[in-house]
Amino acid sequence: MDILARCFLLVFAELYAGGMLAIAIPPFHDIERGFYKSTAGIYVGFGLLAFAGRIALIVSPTTNARPTTTLDIIELVVWVLSLAAGIVYVRSLWGENYAQRARAFVVCWMGAILALALGAQAFRLGGWLSIETILYPISFVISSLVLGAVTTGMLLGHWYLIDNELSIEPFRTMLKFFATTIGLQVGSIAVSCGLIAIIGTAPSGAALQRLLNEHDMLLLARLLAGPVASAGFAWMIWQTLKIPQTMAATGLFYIAILSVVVGEMLSRFILFRTSLPL
Questions:
Q1: CB of 238 within 8 A of CB of 175?
Q2: Which ranges of 26-97 does DSSP label H, i.e. alpha helix?
Q3: CA 56, CA 50: separation in Å to the nearest integer?
Q4: Helix pair angle (216-223, 202-214), 10° resolution
Q5: Looking at the whole model, is its pTM more than 0.85?
Q6: Which of 115-129, 143-157, 178-192, 246-260 has the lowest mean pLDDT?
Q7: Which of 155, 170, 173, 193 is deepest in the core (most CB within 10 A)?
Q8: Own/partner pairs, 43-46, CB within 8 angstroms, 24+ separation
Q9: SS3 200
């Protein structure tokens, strides 16, 4: 089945979407443009990998693959527009066309978020009028913000090795954004479980019961390895920046990335086994 591949390709797509949005958090004019060139280039690369993976699944489907729908085609078109805008944005960083850069950046991240929201509908168990229609896109977008925040924080930390005169405030701002996304993710998981249990469709309710009864340790591992561990690392980074020691904080961001990625991989495995966006 291609659903397993689609679940894990989501991690690459979410990193692209969340990463492109996250680079807007540090003040653009306070940091050398080289940071944005390298960081945005990395994220566009992940976006291209995710898109190539989706195309590969469509061109060479397995016998149990889900048929390509009109919504899938619309999603892919939006991805193309977003990636094209991302490439234009990266290229514009070598020039001074500010209007083009601003437009390309907005189209890039907004298109990526919209594509994630559209792609989320392929995983829901309920109909279009169910609460899952709202919960799935929210969960996917928040996951993308967590991935983007922690990765951008790590990459920004490396920039302090290049620019010794850079103020510590952009790093602190990035950390605050990362901590905020962790809080949003915890809230999203709790609200999603609660709403599915109360007003979710019968298939989603049954999937939640199956998760709690048969895959409870998987859910526990997802929470501990993801938001719980990430929150602990965020606190450690905050304490380190009080010194301030940017190299140590960057090292902690490295470990936080591992925590977030493991948590997201477990989340995608839950999605594969139960079709729940946790």
A1: yes
A2: 33-59, 70-92
A3: 10
A4: 80
A5: yes
A6: 115-129
A7: 155
A8: 43/15, 43/16, 43/19, 43/86, 43/148, 44/16, 44/20, 44/83, 44/86, 44/87, 44/90, 46/12, 46/13, 46/15, 46/16, 46/19
A9: coil
